[in-house]
Amino acid sequence: MFRNFNIWFLSSLLISILVIIPIFTVSISFFEDTSRYFEILKNTFLLEYIFNSLVLLIGVLILTFFLGVGSAYIVSFYKFPGVNFFKWALILSFAIPPYIYAYSLFACFDNYGTAFTILKNLFGEGEYNKHIPKFDGMFGLILSISFSLFAYVYILARSSFLYQSQNLIELGKNLGFSKFKSFYSIILPAARPAIVAGLSLVAMETLAEFGAVDFFSVNTLTTGIYNAWITFDDLAFANRISFFLLLFIFILFITENLSRKKAKYHQTTKGGFKQKEKIKLYGYKSFAAFTFCILIFSLSFLFPLSQMLYWTIKFPENLFDIDIINLLLNTIYLVVLSSLVLIIFALISNYGNRVSKNKYLNTLSTLSISGYAIPGVILAVAFITFIAWFDDNIIKSLGFLSIKKLFIGSILGLVIVYFIRFYSLAYNGIKSGYEKINYAVDESAYLLGYSKRKTFFNIHVPFLRNSLLFVAILVSLEIVRELPITLVLRPFNFETFATTAYISASEDLLEAAAVPSLFLILIAAFFITITSKHILKEKDD
Fold first, then answer.
1. Could you tell me how far CA 304 lies from the centroid of its own chain?
2. Whose CA is closest to 536, among 65, 94, 60, 167?
3. What's the pLDDT band for 316 if we cut at 50, 70, 90?
4. What global pTM score does this model have?
5. Dihedral of the CA atoms 115, 121, 122, 127 (nearest 10)?
6. Any idea what DSSP says for residue 279?
7. Which of 259, 246, 37, 57 is closest to 146 using CA atoms?
8. C-alpha 60: how far from its chain's center?
9. Where would I find the H helices in 124-191?
10. Gap between the Cα atoms of 370 and 421, Å rounded
């Protein structure tokens, strides 16, 4: 046992414990005494929070399934004009956080908004407002989140569709199935694991969403947590609500795992894998496929981008009202620092698991990657709760100075919570690279006299450089978009594009929110464009 207890094992152990602490903190805090506000909430709005969260989740899952699976099927199985463009352009929706989409949706269709202006310029004066649909409340929220997140389903479903065997398609033909029946009875079940995985990611992000939910004034568990902390300054109150949201997450995990165990998935036939051939579309079928894809691309990416660009051009003074250089430097600073920390420790943890081969460490590592499933607002509140407890019960009892200012409202605290939230992305990204390194490589290196340290730095790290680059880009994208963690834990007067856009929108200054939103979209689109070649590879590329 003690042979495996080396520096690598210890590092991996400490990382795993760090990520697990918030879950433990929220769970324990639920049983602590809280203020009268929780009793008031329980008797008034708690059921509303739970009901709204459930309605939102169901609505988003249905719409993202339709958008993601539909677009993935079309670009994977058919050839038509623009298909090579759409296969990567459809993931640009990731560049639009739900809260920015919400700003765009509301601004365009609000009274005397962009839609009104367009109609007025085209047809002159008129009472257009009564004919313009309003997208607000729960309906607007579902649309905002769905068009922002459907790419999770699209990417995973497309990957599964691309690698389905032609044998499956021919089986449907031999059975006399129509294209629809083949899709429903053969193709879709074969892709079920990937689709379920995509929908699970959508569900987690939906439950974690704060900006769009708060903007549309829909009371969910997420906004309840934030208000408990900010409005009532009551950590115990916030943790009580956080516990209910965690239950949602765990129920989701259990349901997803049970469904996977019961499912019977496609196995390659004895005849071997046969490359799937894309069907060339002509006439109205080609037009229909193109129209479907361009419509989704336009609604998910071009629409919010155009709205933010329109406001930036219409109100150029907003460009000078914010310090763009400072916001850019702050954003880059957080991205670089957090990415380095995540990559370094994910490397250490992966290698620690590799050389230790300890089943307990593997269990802890599995638990540690659950941080991504926990909403950012819960992690932020749990972190503050733990630091406050540790400071009051440990640090002060030993006679040391308070450490609260070191971790709360500081860059250090912000980076730590980023680490917990996005550790799974870094860990799994590097793990996928490690799976390509045969253990025989390590054994050969040891026979040549290489130490574990030298093997790590001279062999593993160079081999993993593509995986490390991919992880860096993916983590950077998430940090640029992240709102609730940054909002709660950032230092005083330390703003990013995300927080600046949110603050302007919360003050009903949507025009002012356009500039930081536009820059956020452009930065995120840049990262996505670079990443797309890694996550959208085809066999014939």
1. 19
2. 94
3. confident
4. 0.83
5. 60
6. E
7. 57
8. 14
9. 137-149, 151-162, 166-174, 179-182, 188-190
10. 8
